[in-house]
Design a protein that fits this description.
- This protein is an alpha/beta fold.
- It is built from 17 helices and 14 strands.
- A six-stranded parallel beta sheet has the order 3-2-1-4-5-6, sandwiched between helices. It has a six-stranded parallel beta sheet with strand order 11-10-9-12-13-14, sandwiched between helices.
- Strand 4, helix 5 and strand 5 form a beta-alpha-beta unit.
- The chain starts with 5 loop residues before the first strand and ends in a 10-residue tail after the last strand.
- The structure holds nicotinamide-adenine-dinucleotide and uridine-5'-diphosphate-glucuronic acid.
Length: 459
């Protein structure tokens, strides 16, 4: 069969895999290939056991794989063949040199650009899918045109806004698709070619265009605004705990203002995930680079409050469990950074586990999907840690349960049975406010939610 467009994606991660699976699923007339330098990851994409857990992903991969969706490691062949190349490699925070701990590490990005330049034999549209500092497309253009080989590369910015756990729904029904291009004739032509891809399933009015720099910056700003809301509500949760106000009631009252809206107002143990922190730090770094110290300080505050919130969880546990956690068995309900994903990158549970081990607590970790990642995350930590899939077994004999992830399944457990099996006094720290605190209290638990008055049996 002759395919209408040949699309390549470099980087078969949380973004590259699902995004390309959706394009292939919605556009059977296109051939979509996903390549990666990691052969193990590619093998998993070609197996029954996909490398990431994302509701709905397996179905769409299975529908298209081997028909118009292919996963392989032939980066050279893929580049030669494709007209449109999405680049979806990782862009973590730099861990060395200038900008360490703040700036985006663009080494994978840089290598990809050089590979494209090396292997391309015809004109290409290069699409930035990774989240990048503003003006990165310019660097990409400079790398691609450095050898003056007569091939035209048009660089577009098309940031991805999917959230893990709802990734497939977000891809299928996005709030918007943003495409940034140069305003030149070739830039506009490339932009139209990418619009044509999305128009296969996304309504035209939700495909928006801008210049490249606005597009790159919009992605960082969208993440910063989302994270800012969480830090805002989390900061107020601390005040609620001092004043007997209830964060859920405050969030409801605030969120009913249509100008504010009710999303992203759930107080928690802090935000996690591979992107919020790294993207805000990147934004802060950019602002400092341009001498905008006040702006940088403002956004830095979002990250500072998030660190404060995680530490607050530990200090609350310490003070309520009689100022010592040494030798106490604490069961973490959930390790993923949010529900419906196996991803544990920057999960608050990682930091909290490490702090609990420092306090010499014994940890039992349970999670329906993320235990393998949890084991890897805590691999180098010396301490008493066990991993148990069944939450009943995990909490057996424990002094406390701490809810880290808002898995639906935790709401429906038999807490009477759990209470009977635990050491007494039994504590529950509900770091996601998902449980029925009054019922737990009636069962006998001492209950410590986030941003609400605790319910305790102590006189
Ligand atoms: P990831 O680490 O899951 O995947 C990146 C993949 O790129 C890895 O499999 C890696 O092996 C591969 N890679 C690196 N260099 C390569 C090269 N030279 N050639 C081929 N493959 C290479 O990362 P991710 O979570 O998919 O994120 C990718 C980008 O998308 C980041 O910039 C991130 O900020 C952004 N983003 C992520 C999400 C998310 O939900 N995870 C959402 C929106 C945007
Ligand atoms: C986030 C954005 O929502 C996506 O739009 C973006 O594409 C993505 O980052 C990215 O660039 O990587 P994601 O991190 O997958 O998506 O998940 P979110 O739903 O945003 O949750 C992030 C964290 O905030 C989680 O730890 C979650 O539990 C926490 N959160 C979220 C709260 O603590 N309270 C809330 O009210 C909402």
């Amino acid at each position: 069969m002759e395919f209408g467009k040949k699309i390549l994606c470099i980087g078969a991660g949380y973004v590259g895999g699902p995004t390309m699976a959706m394009i292939a699923y919605k556009c059977p007339q296109y051939r979509v290939t996903v390549v990666d330098i990691n052969p193990a990851r590619i093998a998993q994409w070609n197996s029954d056991d996909l490398p990431i857990y994302e509701p709905g992903l397996e179905e769409i991969v299975k529908t298209s794989r081997g028909k118009n969706l292919f996963f392989n490691t032939d980066i050279e062949g893929g580049i030669k063949e494709a007209e449109i190349i999405f680049v979806s490699v990782n862009t973590p925070t730099k861990t060395f040199g200038s900008g360490m701990g703040m700036a985006a590490d663009l080494q994978y990005w840089d290598k990809t650009a050089k590979q494209i330049r090396k292997f391309a034999e015809s004109d290409k549209i290069i699409v930035e899918k990774s989240t990048l500092p503003v003006k990165t497309a310019l660097a990409m253009e400079r790398i691609l045109t450095a050898t003056n080989n007569g091939i035209h590369f048009e660089v577009l910015s098309n940031p991805e806004f999917l959230a893990e756990g709802t990734g497939i729904k977000d891809l299928e029904d996005p709030d918007r698709v943003l495409i940034g291009s140069r305003e030149t004739p070739s830039g506009l032509k490339a932009r139209d070619s990418l619009i044509e891809v999305y128009a296969n399933w996304v309504p035209q009015d939700r495909i928006i265009t801008s210049n490249v720099w606005s597009s790159e910056l919009s992605k960082l700003v969208a993440n910063a605004f989302l994270a800012q809301r969480i830090s805002s509500i989390n900061s107020i949760s601390a005040l609620c705990e001092r004043t007997d106000a209830d964060i859920t009631e405050v969030a409801r009252a605030v969120g009913m203002d249509r100008r504010l809206g009710n999303k992203f107002l759930n107080a928690s143990v802090g935000f996690g995930g591979s992107c919020f922190k790294k993207d805000i730090l990147n934004l802060v770094y950019l602002c400092r680079h341009y001498g905008l110290e006040e702006v940088a300080d403002y956004w830095q505050g979002v990250v500072t409050i998030n660190e404060y919130q995680k530490e607050r969880v530990i200090t609350n546990m310490l003070s309520t469990m009689f100022n010592t956690l040494a030798g106490k068995r604490i069961c973490l309900f959930g390790f993923a950074f949010k529900a419906n994903t196996s991803d544990t990158r920057e999960s608050p549970a990682v930091t909290i586990s490490k702090r609990l081990i420092e306090e010499k607590a014994e940890l039992v970790i349970t999670d329906p999907k993320a235990l393998d990642n949890a084991k890897m995350d805590l691999d180098t930590i010396e301490g008493n840690i066990s991993y148990v899939e069944d939450p009943y077994e995990a909490s057996d004999g424990c002094d406390a349960i701490a809810v880290m992830t808002e898995w639906e399944a935790y709401k429906n457990l038999d807490f009477e049975m759990i209470y009977r099996s635990m050491a007494k006094p039994a504590f529950i720290f509900d770091g996601r406010n998902i449980l029925d605190h009054k019922i737990l209290f009636a069962i006998g638990f001492n209950v410590f939610p986030i941003g609400k008055p605790p319910l305790t049996h102590f006189k």
